Amino acid sequence: MIKEAVEKAIINQIKNEEHSSRLYLSMASWCQVKGYPGAAAFLFKQTDEERMHQLKFVHYLNDRDGYSQLLALDNPTAEYSSLLDVFEKVMIHEEFITASINDLYEVALNNKDYTTGNFLQWYINEQIEEERTMHGILDKMKLAGNEAGGLFHIDKELSALAAAKVVATLVTE
Ligand code: OFO
User: Fold this and answer.
1) C-beta of 126 in contact with ligand 1 (< 6 A)
2) 97/46 Cα distance (integer angstroms)
3) Which of 20, 21, 125, 171 is the most exposed place for a label (fewest CB within 10 A)?
């Protein structure tokens, strides 16, 4: 039986992952209507990945004789000043998620729940990967500046990244 403190911390992380999914959906929608189809495709894919992160926690907690309850969520941001603004906010959010996964890991270890600690390794690695990807995108955007040609090129690269993510998902399924 999972300890109450660990259960509570996982339920909070289920909320964070659900919020991530909705935040990226909101960003994808903004990119789609502002004429950035590649960025939209990338963020729609991110939305699905965050939903998968949420579900992974839901199943894990229920399998450990806990109960995955859903908590209330704040509305995601709907307005952005530029494509760079969108991805700067993605980066800030990913750093927040990394910190929240680390906090959860600490709760697990403080409660001697090494099974949960082990389970969380997947998320710790995933965060390294996601932060690296977002840093790469942001660096390119900053180099391109606000110039239309540069943004067009970045949007094409994001489209290719989104397509690669689809392939990666199919290969690991
Ligand atoms: Fe990268 O956000 Fe989920 O875990």
Assistant:
1) yes
2) 14
3) 171
d(CA 7, ligand 1 centre) in Å? 19
- Please give the Cα distance from 119 to 109 (Å, whole number): 12
Q: Each residue of 120-169: pLDDT tens digit?
A: 999 999 999 999 999 999 999 998 887 878 899 999 999 999 999 876 66
**Looking at per-residue confidence, does 146 or 55 come out higher?**
55
Radius of gyration, CA atoms only, the chain: 17
Ligand 1 mutation pick, 20, 102, 131, max ligand atoms within 8 A of CB: 20
Check residue 109 and give its pLDDT: 98
148 alpha carbon – ligand 1 mean position (Å): 30
Q: Which residues contact 121 (CB under 8 A, 6 or more apart)?
A: none
Extents of the domains making up the chain: 4-172
**Residue 166 CA to chain centroid, in angstroms?**
16
- State the pLDDT at residue 169: 65
Ligand 1 pocket member 18 (CB < 6 A) = no
Pocket of ligand 1 contains residue 131 by CB under 6 Å:
no
Q: Looking at the domain that runs over 4-172, which CATH code has it been given?
A: 1.20.1260.10
